[in-house]
Amino acid sequence: MIRLVKVSKSYGDTIAVRQLSLVVNQGEVCVLIGPSGCGKTTTLRMVNRLIEPTAGRIFINGKEISRVKPEQLRRSIGYAIQSVGLFPHMTVADNIAVVPELLHWAKSRVAHRIDELLRLVGLDPLEYASKYPNQLSGGEAQRIGVARALAANPPILLMDEPFGAVDPLTREKLQAQFLRIQQELKKTVLLVTHDLDEAIRLADRIAIMASGRLVQHATPEEILSRPTNKFVHDFVGTDRALKRLSRIGVASFIRPTHSVKLSTPMKEVASVCERCHWVWVVDDDGKFTGWLDRTSLPAANSVRQAMVVGDRDEITITKNATLREALSRMLGQGFNSIPVVDEEGRLIGEVSLGDVEAATAKMEP
Ligand SMILES: Nc1ncnc2c1ncn2[C@@H]1O[C@H](COP(=O)(O)OP(=O)(O)OP(=O)(O)O)[C@@H](O)[C@H]1O
Ligand SMILES: [Mg+2]
Hints:
This protein has 16 helices and 17 strands. By secondary structure, it is of the alpha/beta class.
């Protein structure tokens, strides 16, 4: 558990953080958010003693950190930053190994850990361990940054805009991966972001800061439905209902759907299409391939001829997606339902626009 009690930090006349009190419970993800310069990074860096507070006290698991040597403290705290901060002249493996080696882990244990962490962040050790940072994409480098922060299995993670430098699609994937890893590892996490959608998606609780002060500290649901004052209200913006959709998983909204195989005889396709205007098309393994409108049937001799081929990555979602993602796919494609597939891309059902509307209607205004 991390506990800040009336912590302040001044630089001459500039007050970066004012009287900040905040608790991050064990296993909880707390996301710090607020305008540029409001004191987020300063707060984070005081927790691992990269910066010393001017006033106030900080405790980790009940122990005041000013009494713990910074080097010792940092062993129990993983730190990942936006610019990633990988050592350019070291391979990916050596970068990840920095802290375990400081801790004098046996070579075999370090090697095993590197393998395990690369797999955890979704990178093939055979391909990536020996690469240098300048041979990585931005998203890959950020994943290595997260792997390095996790290396010595610290119970606490401090992350300063860890997914900041990548495109929205990669960012979404990194967030999903973070959530999966967090579900498994249950770290105590203090994460800084500029991106409200990211905060809503990742946080158990969000701490909104303004001018060095804590303005509201609450669950995403609470912040979206009951902003404490005009600042939070304006910060959260107008599409609050949409934002709340990103807290709702699609799993309980998946319904069975009509589909035909590439090999389904046209007669059978016609009979399926009597009940619906169009159907999803899957290959013989059940993998999503596209869709077919019944108006295209008369002119075609096979499903392959009649169908529209669809890009699986752009059209389908998995059962781990949120209603907001489902909605954005529907709007992007102009579909009133969107296919749901398993990890192998096999069609398992669909989510409809009507379901998203029903979920929005049930929210408090
Ligand atoms: N070393 C320093 N000397 C003087 N002022 C500083 C120093 N570090 C930070 N500040 C000031 O403290 C305030 C808070 O800075 P901080 O880096 O914590 O902001 P932030 O919320 O992380 O902003 P951003 O979102 O832009 O990263 C700013 O006004 C900044 O100019
Ligand atoms: Mg910052």
